[in-house]
Amino acid sequence: MPSDINNLSGKTIKGYELRQMIGHGGFGAVYRAYQPSVDREVAIKVILPEHANSPDFIRRFESEAQVIARLEHPHITPLYDYWREPDMAVLVMRLLRGGSLQDSLENKGAWKPTDVVRLVTQISGALTTAHRNSIVHRDLKPANILLDEEGNAYLADFGIAKILLQPSQPIVEEDRYGSPAFISPEQVIGQPVSPQTDIYSLGMVIYVALTGQTPFFDSNTNTVIRKQLSETLPPLQTLRPDLPYAVNIIIWRATSKRPEARYPDAYSLANDLKQVLTGEKPSTSTAQISSPSIPRVLSNPNDINTIIIEAPTNLTNPYKGLQAFQEADAGDFFGRASLIERLIKKLAQGEHGSQFLAIIGPSGSGKSSIARAGLIPTLKRGALFGSQEWFYVQMTPGSNPLQELADALLGVADKMSLSFTNLFSGSEDTLAKIIPEILPIGEIELVLLIDQFEELFTLVTSEEIRARFLQLIVNAVQTPASRLRVIITLRADFYDRPLQYPALSTLMRDNTEIVLPLTLPEMEQAIVEPSDRYAIQFENGLVSRIISDVSQQPGALPLLQFALTELFDKRDKYI
Fold first, then answer.
1. Is 496 a catalytic residue?
2. What is the pTM of this model?
3. How far is CA 235 from CA 243, 246, 256, in A?
């Protein structure tokens, strides 16, 4: 891989043909590219090595990208693909051919008020969706608002987005100086970010879109930052005397130095701006969307006494259908708190010096969800001493577990090492040697989640490859002062297979937790809690009926999730 990411035109990266660079900045370069497998053009952002190799970026890249890729809104630029490897991280996005708002302002100047209203309405919808998913953009500016050929606006570049549930970080120099004209005061001084952080930046964007100029322009970046902390924006009428004075009130509220004094949500800001600039009152549907606390009801579609009402739109379904919960779904994962606590205790005890944990349960018991959406996020929040600073990688064995292992480790490595090739044919302690090479010096550990461990016995045809993979894992976790922790999930009907390997069977005997069926209170939590964040209520008696139907059915959790997914999607028809 070339070391200069600003010179990748004509190169092919994982099947994407990079054709020409269309933008660059302090965080990375953006290329127009072609994806032959689906015959489409895409935009590819390649993150600079100094960012892609930083430990904090490595820790949060996978989980944040997973959340961002799931954001679904007509005015959020879709994230199609993403990965990280030594010296770069890559984001593959929809290619928009209308340039950016910044390009438009530089080439054509200030926008018409009606066009600004349309832009703010579209971007406020995108921000609301992001905020409901606990994502703060943190870098809202004209360069990150892309346009299509009809002038519609799309929110882009969540590459440095911040998940609200994570601890706040003081803003670093490259973030601060990337967009000083739009940065919020709390970011400058390292206070926690919130949706109001984006509202501040949106207020600045509105000012620039209406006037064509930034309010705190100065060649000295420190002067701009000082003004962001202490000065009120000048009245718009100095540049646009045709605008109503009331627009100043809207922008001043959005850009208050105190986050709590700003608009409560982006839709409220958009509604006020629309009313002042166009005279139109907010629509009923918009008012409903901006008030997610209005109670709604999930009902039994077989009840003949139901009546039809209108329900809120643009709500992300918190249930997973037949899919497993992922780390991005941690906020919707309920009912396994007691089990997660037991798993954490197992890892804390480290019986017989082992750093191995097996999670075993029957098919459909939710093993993958427990590990991905329960255990890993809990560890990342610091459940064990220092675990919030550890690195985490996940893999499934597939048909080539050695390659899957190498790819997973490359996702957290900051350099390419010859040791990676030794995974395939080197000594049995190769993995134990790689771990110190890819981890920063200190007490930081690496947690390797091997999900669907039974694939080693169903998809791997070579006994030599299977045995080598198992021996690499066993040696690495049993190495004195090992900095690797391995967690596996295994179907109960394959429990005997690992026991045929003596070293692994000892680990299994001493470090296994069995997944039991949900208790009735736990099942109620799994059903009710995900919808509670939307203040959506179940019809009286419906939860009890659901529990009665599924509580006696082994492996019924996927079917329960599927039924809840369908019920949530159809909630607009019944009450």
1. no
2. 0.77
3. 10, 10, 14
